[in-house]
UniProtKB/TrEMBL annotation:
GO terms for molecular function: acid phosphatase activity; metal ion binding. It comes from Perilla frutescens var. hirtella (Perilla citriodora). PROSITE patterns: FN3. SUPFAM superfamilies: Metallo-dependent phosphatases, Purple acid phosphatase, N-terminal domain. Residues 57-152 form the Fibronectin type-III domain. Homodimer; disulfide-linked. This is Purple acid phosphatase. It catalyses: a phosphate monoester + H2O = an alcohol + phosphate. Residues 1-21 form the signal peptide. The keyword Nucleotide-binding does not apply. Belongs to the metallophosphoesterase superfamily. Purple acid phosphatase family. Keywords: Glycoprotein, Hydrolase, Iron, Metal-binding, Signal, Zinc. Pfam families: Metallophos (PF00149), Metallophos_C (PF14008), Pur_ac_phosph_N (PF16656). InterPro entries: Calcineurin-like_PHP, FN3_dom, Metallo-depent_PP-like, MPP_PAP, PAPs-like, PAPs_C, PAPs_N, Purple_acid_Pase-like_N.
């Protein structure tokens, strides 16, 4: 049985139907069955990869938060014919005064590939809650985009984050991005949980597939910040072709404001945005005791002021709680090191990718174990985060559709479908989360949950009975 605590008649009927269809041991395994075919990468001449017209036109334009609090933006783009200009011109809506910011450019070689000129420019001292236009390029080939800065950081500021992971560049990836863009509950900033282009699956890790990916996602990420997390496909390590510097393409192409949170590397950092404190961790950098990431997180968590940013969100690539037969327990070593802190500091939610499916956990922890006591089963814990696996962006490796059975008690809902999610903060106590599968209409929610904040409103918000 899958008994429900919530008592709406509809929910009870739905539960009865699902329970009859899918035996489980606590949570729900969705009965939705998706066609198992995988869609390949979109061909190079696809319209979504089109190079913008004009000599040396800026392409692959993308933005991310540029400081700790949301008053700066990092604008990045690529030029291929010549270096071009590093300047971003920008102006507030309703203002004719144009400001100018100077950036830097870089390029890299990867095996037999040489990148274009990759520009990064931090635009500082922006006003909160303001729409800005920005222009990159010079001469006849300038391109103009816009973004809206977040409201000033504060405890009751409503704000909606989108969530995508493991996107890749297949026809399914395109469907996921379209569904995200057309979701009527608009995400204002996207939290990206790692594995971007999957270029490393090509012979010699053909980095032209990083360029196509940059052009593919521009239609969203040029207009709203994506907060980046590094996944295993960003490692780009291949000793056999002489490429032994981890994260080389990723770290040249995607700059993040890691120094603003006193991090010493771009793979772990934090930002505040509206009423959220977002901590990004790296599953593929050292994280054990005494590592740089360990000491950074050790100092970072006590800095989170829940009176200023009530919502504490963690992003990582490899999930800690995952009941699919893919990447099973790969997150375990990091869990052992950091989970006691997540419980102590009452993290609200952890988003991860890596497993190409969807799963939402109960609030559980597994911190009692030591090497002799045998206490190694996850237990319900109201101070623990909800763990959400959202690695279902639709990449070329296809779906993870083989689950461990029976469904573990810690798993509240799981389904092997591609999709995206939104996390919509209403105030300091409530946030509405919903997951959307690609087969449905844009407004349809396939899973949802009201989150009660762990600091301000730490009552039971489980959607299923324990
Ligand atoms: Fe991955």
């Amino acid at each position: 049985m899958c008994p429900y605590k919530k008592t709406s008649v509809l929910a009870v009927i739905a539960a009865a139907v699902l329970a009859a269809a899918v035996p489980c041991n606590g949570g729900i395994t969705s009965s939705f069955v998706r066609s198992p075919e995988k869609s390949g990468d979109m061909p190079l001449d696809s319209d979504v990869f089109k190079v913008p017209p004009g000599y040396n036109a800026p392409q692959q334009v993308h933005i991310t938060q540029g400081d700790l609090v949301g008053k700066a933006v990092i604008v990045s783009w690529v030029t291929v014919d010549e270096p071009g200009s590093n300047i971003v011109l920008y102006w507030a809506e309703n203002s004719s005064y144009k400001y100018k910011a100077n950036g830097i450019k870089t390029k890299y070689k990867f095996c037999n590939y040489t990148s274009g000129y990759i520009h990064h420019c931090t635009v500082n001292k922006l006003e909160y809650d303001t729409k800005y236009y920005y222009e990159v390029g010079v001469g006849n080939t300038t391109r103009t985009f816009w973004f809206t800065t977040p409201p000033e950081v504060g405890p009751d500021v409503p704000y909606t984050f989108g969530l995508i992971g493991d996107l890749g560049q297949t026809f399914d990836s395109n469907t996921t991005l379209t569904h995200y863009e057309k979701n009527p509950n608009k995400g204002q900033t996207l939290l990206y949980v790692g594995d971007l282009s999957y270029a490393d699956r090509y012979p010699l890790q053909d980095n032209t597939r990083w360029d196509t990916w940059g052009r593919f996602v521009e239609r969203s990420v040029a207009y709203q910040p994506w907060i980046w997390t590094a996944g295993n496909h960003e490692l780009s390590y291949d000793r056999t072709i002489g490429e032994t510097t981890p994260f080389k393409p990723y770290s040249h192409r995607f700059h993040v404001p890691y120094k603003a949170s006193n991090s010493t590397a771009p793979f772990w950092y934090s930002v505040k945005r509206a009423s959220a404190y977002i901590i990004v961790l790296s599953s593929y950098s050292a994280y054990s005791k005494y590592s740089p990431q360990y000491w950074w997180l050790y100092e970072e968590l006590p800095k989170v002021n829940r009176s200023e940013t009530p919502w504490l969100i963690v992003l990582m690539h490899s999930p800690w709680y995952n009941s699919y037969n893919y990447h099973y327990m790969e997150g375990e070593t990091m869990r052992v090191v950091y989970e006691p802190w997540f419980v102590e500091y009452k993290v609200d939610v952890v988003f991860a990718g890596h497993v190409h499916a969807y799963e939402r956990s109960e609030r559980v922890s597994n911190v009692a174990y030591n090497i002799v006591n045998g206490l190694c089963s996850p237990v319900s814990n109201p101070s623990a985060p909800v763990y959400i696996t959202i690695g279902d962006g639709g990449n070329v490796e296809g779906l993870a559709n083989n689950m461990t059975e029976p469904q573990p008690k810690y798993s509240a809902f799981r389904e092997a479908s591609f999709g995206h999610a939104t996390f919509s903060i209403k105030n300091r106590t409530h946030a509405y989360y919903s997951w959307h599968r690609n087969q449905d209409g844009y407004a349809v929610e396939a899973d949802s949950m009201w989150f009660f904040n762990r600091f301000w409103h730490p009552i039971d918000d489980s959607t299923t009975a324990a």
